[in-house]
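pipeline: protein-struct stage 2 | run 1193 | Transcriptional regulator, TrmB
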Amino acid sequence: MDDLIRNLMALGLTEYEARVYAALVGIGEGSARQIHETSGVPRPRVYDIAEGLAARGFITIRRGNPHIYIPVEPGVVIHHLKSAADAAATAAAQGLDALSLDARSKNSPIWYVQGEWSIRRHAESLAGGVTRDLAVVCLDYGEIGEFARLIADTSRDHPVSILLPNGKRGIRKPLGNAFLHVPKPFCAFFQENIFEKIYCGPLSVDGAAYLLEYIFIADDRVCMIIYRENGVRNAVVITLPFITCVQRQFVNRMIANSEQIEGPVKAGGGL
């Protein structure tokens, strides 16, 4: 019984709530006196604990003299408790991640991000901070769906340009009012030494293979680069103006020398 009580408490019940509910499941239904005798919860407390469990939908009460308390099916209760715990964990992770993001942005102009959750959270924060426009270099079309809503939401209020170095193929998610661009050759040095070697293929350094997936640039203030290192996804967020401005100029130059797809991508459309 002690293990059961501990497990119910881990899911969010207090000790007395766990003891009252477990006692009711064990006896099927009962009065406050029977619950007290089975659970060990002081009888005066049984009444308010039972009312609280009833308010949460975990037991029902047959009013009378005395009241009879009946447990709701354990599967229903456990599902509710688990859902609430999952929601609390998600909210806590978001809150902690936001604190971490704020602290990093205050203390360092460059920081690394690991883990899918953190990468998405930082991308959302970057897009949420756009005041002028957003530019996206997309090299992995298979994954752009994960950022489709972020791009579409941002495009409602600000211009969004998406650069597609690999051509206009494979995109199935609607991207709101974003405009798509396919770059064309424009500068031999940049084309051969930067674009083709760094943007469009794997880059090997000291035995590690790096593959660029995305570059997000909010205005010319924040740049987020998402990449894979030996198959593991990571990101780096940069707010150092010397780097963000240069990156934005590279992207602007590619956009200026690109083929622009006419009109925004509409919901239900595809390329």
